[in-house]
């Protein structure tokens, strides 16, 4: 199998390359940033992409964004993502591509179990789905808790709402326009399933949901 590895840590990258080659896979490219990953996939057309979530150039979720971009262009491209931490938003974004077939999300600690890791690589390459047990637990919790649907910015807005701030005050605090704040507030109401007919109470209900979530 032809594999592309994307990992910004040189030590981890070389370790993954050695591990894949140990199981008779061919690493056609090993890169350290998201743009290089996209370029390598377009050039080499691998059978599997193995990528970290957090990589340069922004050192944020660049690897995940690249994986989603690649899967959007080619839903049949198998992608196995490795992450140091459980990031439910990242996992859901990946699972939303290609109907969730041929994708995997594992914590890096799982690589230590060489046999299980090799099996996960084969399963994803064959069109299967592999999710770390901790990722599954967090996804279940996130779906039970509607607050988990909110983006980081929407959480900031809701937190300030819980502090009793008006939309104008929220705009000043977050350095946003009034229109942007209004948009985020509407998104909060929608994601928390607060119907329009409860408009007079939606702000209070949203704050109660925030408090119940223990954020």
UniProtKB/TrEMBL annotation:
PROSITE patterns: HTH_LUXR_2 (PS50043), RESPONSE_REGULATORY (PS50110). GO terms for biological process: phosphorelay signal transduction system; regulation of DNA-templated transcription. It comes from the Bacteria. SMART domains: HTH_LUXR, REC. Residues 143-214 form the HTH luxR-type domain. Keywords: DNA-binding, Phosphoprotein, Transcription, Transcription regulation. The keyword Transcription applies. InterPro entries: CheY-like_superfamily, NreC/VraR/RcsB-like_REC, Sig_transdc_resp-reg_receiver, Tscrpt_reg_LuxR_C, WalR-like, WH-like_DNA-bd_sf. Pfam families: GerE (PF00196), Response_reg (PF00072). GO terms for molecular function: DNA binding. Residues 2-123 form the Response regulatory domain. Signal peptide: none annotated. The modification 4-aspartylphosphate is found at residue 52. This is Two component transcriptional regulator, LuxR family. It comes from Pseudonocardia ammonioxydans. The lineage of its organism: Bacteria, Bacillati, Actinomycetota, Actinomycetes, Pseudonocardiales.
């Amino acid at each position: 199998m032809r594999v592309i590895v994307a990992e910004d840590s040189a030590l981890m990258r070389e370790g993954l390359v050695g591990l894949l080659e140990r199981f008779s896979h061919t690493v056609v490219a090993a890169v350290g940033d998201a743009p290089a990953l996209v370029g390598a996939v377009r050039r080499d057309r691998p059978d599997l992409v193995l990528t970290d979530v957090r990589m340069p150039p922004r050192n944020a979720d660049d690897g995940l964004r690249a994986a989603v971009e690649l899967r959007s262009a080619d839903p049949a491209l198998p992608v196995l993502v490795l992450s140091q931490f459980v990031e439910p938003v990242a996992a859901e974004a990946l699972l939303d591509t290609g109907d969730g077939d041929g994708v995997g999300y594992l914590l890096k600690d799982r690589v230590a179990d060489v046999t299980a890791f090799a099996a996960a690589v084969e399963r994803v390459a064959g069109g299967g789905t592999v999710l770390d047990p901790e990722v599954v637990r967090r996804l279940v919790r996130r779906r039970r808790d509607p607050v988990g649907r909110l983006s980081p910015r929407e959480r900031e807005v809701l937190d300030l709402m819980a502090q009793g701030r008006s939309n104008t005050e929220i705009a000043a605090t977050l350095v946003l326009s009034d229109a942007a704040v209004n948009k985020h507030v509407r998104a909060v109401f929608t994601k928390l399933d607060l119907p329009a007919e409860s408009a007079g109470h939606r702000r209070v209900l949203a704050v109660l949901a925030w408090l119940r979530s223990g954020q």
